[in-house]
Structure formats: C-alpha cells, structure tokens
C-alpha cells in the first residue's frame, strides 16, 4: 500500500497538564511510526480560544501533525483519538498537492516572519544604544 501525506489536527482539553499533552502526541506519533510511516512535522499551537464552546470549554490546546503514512493507519489513529478522554475534537485530512504547497508556504512564511522580527528587535536595540550614547 502506498504512503500518502496526512495532516492530523486535534484539540486537547485545556485542563490537561503538559505531561498529558506530550503523552497524547507521543501516542499518535508512535502509532504512525509503528505502522511504517514517518513524521514530517509536529506543530503545537498551544492554548487558543475556540470558535464555540466544546464540552463546556472556551479554550483548547491545538496540535497538528503532518505525516506520511498508509491509509490503514488512519483507522487506528481515529480510534485512539476517539478513546482519548482529553481530546475534545479531531480531524484527519489527506493532503492533496494544493494543500501540500500551501503548507510549505506557511512554514516558509513563519520562518521569514520570525527572522524579520529578530532583525527588527536588533535594529531597535541598536537605535536605543545610539540614543543613549548621544544623550550622554
């Protein structure tokens, strides 16, 4: 069976500890690896506001995993996420070429924007130091 690229997104109960979150992520990663798949990226967005209340919560911990895996692995992941009490919502998407390109562009944009912010911080620090030297 051919491996395809999937994106697995899930929202964890905001009351979950960091250890519980890590355990949930590790369990999904282990399922993929044990089935012969490989992980491209694990993206923890952290605590975010939900669009509407889910299980009486207005926030959740968002996690996205990009992986190459067999379609049969999907069923195992879906079962695990359904049975994991702390997972409030989840979705597993098979990525087509347009989604793959959008995903690459998003990651590239994140890297570039981070670099821009770091450069702006450096420029601001230099300007502050220049002002201090002139004022002295």
Can you give a write-up of this model?
The structure is a single chain. The chain has about 140 residues and is of the alpha+beta class. It has 2 domains: about 100 residues, Ribosomal protein S6/Translation elongation factor EF1B (Alpha-Beta Plaits), CATH 3.30.70.60; about 40 residues. The protein contains 3 helices and 4 strands, in the order E-H-E-E-H-E-H. The chain has a 4-stranded antiparallel beta sheet with strand order 2-3-1-4, with helices on one face. A hairpin with a 2-residue loop joins strand 2 and strand 3. The longest helix has about 40 residues. The model has no long low-confidence stretch (mean pLDDT about 85).
Secondary-structure map with pairings?
Blueprint: E1 3-12, H1 18-34, E2 38-54, E3 57-70, H2 71-83, E4 87-94, H3 97-135
Helix pairs in contact: 1-2
Comma- or semicolon-separated keywords:
alpha+beta; 3 helices; globular; 4-stranded antiparallel beta sheet; 2 domains; 136 residues; Alpha-Beta Plaits
Rounded mean pLDDT score: 83
Number of helices: 3
Which architecture of the largest domain would the CATH scheme give at its second level?
A: 2-Layer Sandwich
Looking at CATH, the homologous superfamily of the largest domain is Ribosomal protein S6/Translation elongation factor EF1B
Helix share, percent: 40-55%
Q: Could you tell me how far the N terminus lies from the C terminus, measured between alpha carbons in angstroms?
A: 72 Å
**In angstroms, what is the radius of gyration?**
20 Å
Q: Which spans have pLDDT < 50 for at least 5 consecutive residues?
A: none
């Amino acid at each position: 069976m051919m491996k395809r690229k999937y994106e697995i997104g899930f929202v964890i109960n905001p009351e979950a500890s960091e250890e519980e979150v890590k355990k949930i992520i590790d369990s999904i990663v282990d399922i993929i690896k044990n089935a012969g798949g490989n992980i491209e990226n694990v993206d923890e967005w952290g605590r975010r506001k939900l669009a509407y209340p889910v299980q009486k919560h207005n926030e959740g911990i968002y996690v996205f995993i990009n992986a190459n895996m067999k379609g049969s692995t999907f069923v195992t992941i879906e079962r695990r996420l359904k049975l994991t009490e702390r997972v409030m919502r989840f979705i597993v998407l098979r990525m087509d070429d347009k989604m793959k390109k959008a995903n690459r562009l998003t990651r590239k944009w994140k890297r570039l924007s981070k670099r821009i912010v770091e450069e702006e911080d450096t420029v601001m620090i230099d300007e502050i130091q220049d002002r201090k030297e002139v004022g002295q």
